[in-house]
Structure to design on (152 residues):
C-alpha cells in the first residue's frame, strides 16, 4: 500500500511538472506592476481638458482611467483634489510603484495627479499629453504636494 501511494505521489508530481507546474513560483504581476504597466501603455495619448479616455485625458481623468482599467479595477474620485483625500499618505522617500503623486500646479490647492513609476519618475497627463516626468525637475519638485498609496 505504501508503495502504491508513493507511486501516485510521484506520478502526480510528474504530471504537475509536465502541465506547467514549474511556473507556479512565477506569480502573476503585483497590482503595483499592473497599474504602472497600464499607465505606461497610454504614454503619448493627447491632453484634453476634462478628458477621461485615451482619446484625451486630463491629469485626474488619466489617473482614474488607469486604476479602473488595470487589473486593480479600482474606482477613484474624478478630480485630483478628491483623489488626494483617498488612500494612505506616503513620504517621498517611501514611494512605491503605483502610488499616486499630487501637485499644486494651479495655486494652493492640489490640481494635478500622476502615477509613480519608480526611480523618481511618474507618468501623468500634462498639457502636452501623457508623459513620463521626473520628480527631480524644478517644476515638479516645487509643485509637489504629497503622495497617497491606494494599493495594498
Amino acid at each position: 500500500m505504501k508503495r502504491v501511494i508513493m507511486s501516485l505521489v510521484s506520478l502526480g508530481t510528474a504530471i504537475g511538472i509536465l502541465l506547467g507546474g514549474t511556473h507556479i513560483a512565477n506569480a502573476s504581476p503585483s497590482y503595483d506592476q499592473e497599474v504602472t504597466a497600464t499607465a505606461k501603455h497610454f504614454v503619448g495619448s493627447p491632453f484634453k481638458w476634462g478628458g477621461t479616455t485615451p482619446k484625451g485625458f486630463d491629469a485626474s481623468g488619466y489617473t482614474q482611467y488607469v486604476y479602473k482599467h488595470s487589473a486593480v479595477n479600482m474606482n477613484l474620485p474624478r478630480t485630483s483634489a478628491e483623489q488626494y483625500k483617498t488612500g494612505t499618505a506616503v513620504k517621498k522617500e517611501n514611494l512605491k510603484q503605483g502610488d499616486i503623486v499630487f501637485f499644486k500646479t494651479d495655486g494652493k490647492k492640489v490640481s494635478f495627479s500622476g502615477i509613480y513609476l519608480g526611480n523618481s519618475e511618474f507618468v501623468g497627463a500634462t498639457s502636452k499629453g501623457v508623459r513620463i516626468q521626473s520628480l527631480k525637475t524644478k517644476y515638479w519638485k516645487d509643485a509637489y504636494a504629497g503622495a497617497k498609496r491606494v494599493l495594498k
